Queue: 2 jobs
Job 1
Amino acid sequence: MWDDCDTNAVTMVKASDAESGRRGDVTSDTTTEQVLDDGPDEPLLTLEELCARVGISVRNVRFYTSRGLVPPPLRRGRSGYYTPDHVARLELVQELQAHGFTLSAIERYLEDIPADATPGDIALRRTMLAPWAHDRSVRMTRADLESRAERPLSDDDLALLATLNVVEQRPDGTFDVSPTQLSVAFGLIEIGFPPEAAAVASQMYADHGRQIARELYDIFRRLAWPTYKEAGMTPESVQAIVERLKPLSITSLVAAYEAGMDEIRRENIDRRTRAPRGPGG
């Protein structure tokens, strides 16, 4: 869902998807353009070719350029040309949109990408955006949820499920549900898990999850990606490697969590056994 401030702009862009791109070979953007010089050889695309390659309309390209999401075209006379860098950045914008990023969020995300990032560097970022969770949400009604729970669900029960990010209510009253987490969440309802604790725990998981993700991404970018890049691996090959890393990463996190809980339990036991006893102890 786009931010309210972005809605009109996005509507304008999407409404033009059927527009013909024939006039796209001649650039008329108000954005400052780069002059094409006799630099190193690299494949150049006209606006028409770029749109066909990425699957995007002429108006979209111009709109994203005006917002600074992609650099302006290289210019020779009145004709604009586009490089693999333009392709990579447009594909990244499309990927971010597919993941539900608002236009403002996309702008903030792209601000972190260095201006001299190569198409390969950008492709890596797009590869790392691939969803790690294979748990696709399913649509359910309240009656469906109660059938799965084998009991009526109060509004407080539904609120707890929402706090745990297991369900998300849609405007039509149905719910997007994470099926793999549903049985665990129903178990928490059965034991009367406090909503306040659920909210704090959910936020903690989200915060630590984001921090771990950033650090793992940084490790991959600094220590693994240069090796794969030097070997000439394609983004598709890197994606296959990332897919293989997913189960290892998840298993490692679970093992570290379990080891940490055992360590804390032992520390608590040691602290209680070493505590000074009272006169009657």
Note: Strands lie at 34-35, 74-76, 79-81, 138-140, 167-169, 175-177.
Job 2
Amino acid sequence: MSVEKTDGRGLVSGIYIRTNREITREDWILEAFPEWGTFLNKEIEAMEVPKGSVSLWWCGGPSWVLKTDEGGIFLIDQWCGPSHYTTIDYCGVCKQNGAPSMNWLRLNPQVIDPFSFGRVDGVFCTHVHNDHCDIYTVKGTMGTTDAVYVAPPETVKRLKEFEVPDERIVTAKVGNSIKLPGAEVEFLRTMTTAPQRRGTAMHSPTKMWHARSCLRLLPEIFCSWVIHGIMMPMWQSARSTTLTWRFLISATMRRELSTR
């Protein structure tokens, strides 16, 4: 007797899971991962955002999805990668703590499938670290959507390594802005304490900042932005914790927020 695998909601049927059948390792991976299947993809795409409002999903770690009232879908620092390790020859955190290698174990489930979106308007990467400029997110959305990829200059280099076409890349430069469905995105200057925390000098294409400096402006390396009338992510620091994201979400325009 044939057993229905899914009714289309993006999850596997419980009856299908308990039905005896031949299963390969590949079957297991495809049926068990992503842990949420395409359930959240479908929810995001089906969500009708009220006029003047916005919907926001936290996907764990630094990763967010935002949808505007015009249907625009933005992925922000979306991390769809696996647990992995880094080594001291290139990893800044290893250099900071002196460890020859570090294991980065993923703790939260993978809640979206980056290959299963029918629409994504913008993929935003605040900086070049794996969990912010993610090859799985980039490759998945590049092949199935018309998304543009927004990043500061240093991270744009990584996007080009990932073979993102030039016409789909937006380089975030302080003072510039872009218009996407339901939003105007303005690029802001970012401040970081990374040199001080690392105890070492930090290099950019044009300058070097020393550890004695408490706050330095690094527009080439990090990026932040304000989406007018929707959200104000103040900044994303060199390290990725959810606490460094500060969102102000409101259905009112930004000029009205100052009166509240």
Note: The first strand starts at residue 54 and ends at 60.
